[in-house]
Amino acid sequence: MPPLLRSALDEFGASLTANFRAARAVPAQPEDQLKPPVTRLIQAAGGAFNLDIVARTEASASEFGVRPDVGVSVDQLLTGHIELKAPGKGARGRAFTAEHDRAQFKRLSDHPNLIYTDGNEWALYRRGSAVGRVVTATGDVRSDGAAAYSDGECQSLEELLRDFLLWQPIVPTSPKALAEALAPLTRLLREGVLAALRDEGSNLSRLASEWRSIFFPDADDARFADAYAQTVTYALLLARVEGETDLHDHAADRLDARHDLLAQVLRVVAQPAAREEVEVPVSLLERAIGAVDPGELARRARERDIWLYFYEDFLAAYDPRLRRQSGVYYTPAEVVEAQVALVAELLREQFDLELGLAEPDVVVLDPAVGTGTYLLAALEHGAETAERAFGPGARSERTSSMARNLHGFELLVGPYAVAQLRIAQRVLANGGELPEDGLRVLLTDTLESPFAAPQHIAHAPLFEQRLAQENVRARRVKAETDVLVCLGNPPYFRQVIEAEEVETVERQGGWVRFGDEGSVPILGDFLRDAPPVHAKNLYNLYVYFWRWGLWKVFETAERRGIVSFITASSYLRGPGFAGMRRHMRELFDELWILDLGGEGARRPTK
Asked: Which of 138, 153, 203, 386 would you call most buried, defined as having the most Cβ atoms within 10 angstroms of its Cβ?
């Protein structure tokens, strides 16, 4: 019995031979000669395997280098892509010699289901690794017609295509597995955005300019591409967790009720003209996230906080260097609970606030909120205190009031989305109500100026008005809101600037380090008494956050409160930190230092 695709493969070889003979008279791109025959062969394979197949040639995006030539869907769900090469180039990505081909193969190395073929060779790749063996024709489709493939080679190609067409996203069984599954697809999207930004006339380049003018003025291309990729990933994931099944058309609508900023950001970054330039990775993300079972996630969430480690796991797989520079590391629950308990004790004993964090006038801010662990701990501590004092009925009422008093700033879209999810779920689980204008967890750069507004906010397009409003809300909290408690685990990253890092870290420190035009930066107070040779040690994220926290609590409005940070301990003894210690002594009535060690020679064993 002949292989199922025997006749289809005969027609494939015959049509290609005819095409290349005709091309001698009318020259054409070799890859273009392959498109119709490959599409027909894939359709024939679908029929042979009893699958509902649609294979379409993608719109040209060769200048961006991120879109394979043919997209394939099965039962109306994206299955994978096929990249065509000129016959003779082969399908072995690591053997490509042309710089363009090598760069493209690297960019597509995170694709979960991708075929390379030059008509004579076929190879299936998943995340950059070949699956099975490469199928190679004995003959040449350019000249040998139907005789190019033997029956044995036809059988091998059937197996490869069946594997390709029956691909299903792996449904992660744990939050860590989910994080690790999404990370490469997010990275694929980020690389696609970066490629599009190299063309100043691309839609994504125009979108990046609008993003900078309204939201993050200092965002370079790398930061914009990262923000775009993480926004799409986490907005889609959040919509799926909320129960949305049609992520392509209705993800933003699903987010409107509880997470309206993410809904509007998703609408902005997924504008059709911009999305078209990165259609492949966005579609793959929709397919992968669509396979997630929100019921299973909800069940696991009832058992424990499944999102606690999620973003750290994601970032470790997505971009370890970004994780290091952003200082994204999980804070042990015991540390968080100890800090929160100590703050509550001080509120009772030093500020005569009997309910501690549950008192109506206690405003709490985490300036580097991450995934919301500190605010969650404060919320739970306050709710339990109120319940002990007034009975179970007080939990819901105090949860609602605390939801209005808990503030958080986050720079990265991923943890921001997770914090929004975790805190909203906890408020509702406690029987509380979310604030009418949304949670006070805001997407912003804490270290940006609290006084200087980005340009052009008044002229922002309709969809970007919500972005502009977020910026205004954040600046208002920075400049006007009285904060009694500032707590958290600020990021650590010292600026040891290497040649390849200059562009990404040279502006670190923002308003704290550089001030507004015509103003004196507040970091200058820490530079007092610092020997010049040691002053370089102050250029560290955790130092900037210490200076910002002291300014916010003790140098604006009320001039009283509590700052509770866990940070590196180098400021306690280092000669470069003399000015920092002096400024702390001048501001604080009491300084409590719990030195946990853990640095240098005093680092404990794992």
From this structure: 386
